[in-house]
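Box S1 | Example of a co-folding query
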Amino acid sequence: MPTAFITGVTGQDGSYLAELLLDKGYRVIGMVRRSSTVNFERIAHVQDRIEFVNADLLDEVSIIEALRETEPDEVYNLAAQSFVQTSFGQPVLTGETTALGVTRMLDAIRIVDPSIRFYQASSSEMFGKVAEVPQRESTPFHPRSPYGVAKVYGHWITVNYRESYGLHASSGILFNHESPRRGLEFVTRKISHAAAKIALGRADELRLGNLDAQRDWGFAGDYVDAMWRMLQQDSPDDYVVCTGESHSVREFVDLAFKRVNLDYDDYVVVDERFFRPAEVDLLIGDSTKAEDVLGWQRRTGFDALVADMVDADIALLEGKLRAIS
Ligand code: NAP
Ligand code: GDD
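Box S1 (continued) | Returned holo structure for guanosine-5'-diphosphate-alpha-D-mannose
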């Protein structure tokens, strides 16, 4: 039974990846940082099958100890300060966690057991002010936020440890992926949750920023399968994972409100507070390499994703779901 070690196991992707690996018969170790309350909402349904170990991306010794104690075969580094807007307000913390945190993970692996296979959660946000359309593995990076800059560092340090120390270290350049478990501050979940609240008469407006931004949105449950496939390859490499379709925030909001038979124009208010100092206007990827080499394919389309998110938020608000899992 192989052992997988997941950082960020309490996050959206960590919860889907833990499910996938448990289903495959892995022993799953979840690395969690200390907090004053338990935040296991997304993994409550599989919590008893995960072994937890305390460590923090900001503290390398804690990571070394956690790896020594649990002896994993594969490490999936999903932990990060992942919200772009927050990275403008907390650029140093974002750099410490999302950039240097990757070095701490890689260094801990190098010290404890260099045969451990490593996955780094890189991001389409690295393409930023895009140099070509669609974006692929060879597209140059031009990040537009402290988060994007930190992810570029994390990406290149992963490549560097692969080249310098021969680590089996791969980087998944994942485009936006969403689910009913998405954090409430990200635009898709903010919209699905607000559409559900408004439909149930518990809110009467939704304040958003740039409605014209375009993203290549997929379903998180489909994307964690690509992470696992990367670590099963003989050689480490970098892969773009995306749908190859782009939609605007306006299209997402329109579809979400239509799902509850409402017109978004009656409820959406554009609010300057949600605009960013620098924006990523358009993301659309080309995942040919992941499809050809990994045999990866996405299963969920855009319309189904929006419908699932709105339906799940209605069920949550009506008390039919205790938590989104
Ligand atoms: P998420 O829901 O925000 O989860 C982030 C996770 O990181 C949480 O479990 C959080 O723990 C943990 N974390 C934050 N700071 C930490 C620290 N100092 N030490 C240990 N753990 C820490 O993010 P996600 O959407 O699942 O994304 C997973 C990864 O993929 C992230 O690296 C993200 O940047 C990257 N990514 C995401 C997307 C996307 O569209 N979702 C696309 C490309 C790349 P707490 O629960 O304790 O806060
Ligand atoms: N969050 C948010 N809130 N975004 C808004 C809003 C709003 O009220 N109104 C418009 N937007 C626009 C943002 O300006 C951005 O262009 C787009 O919606 C998507 O924003 P987010 O959902 O916050 O995601 P993101 O694209 O910035 O970042 C996500 O995807 C990256 C991959 O490209 C995060 O998951 C990152 O961690 C991930 O790396």
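The mean pLDDT is 97. The chain has two domains: 3-177+217-241, 182-215+245-284+300-324.
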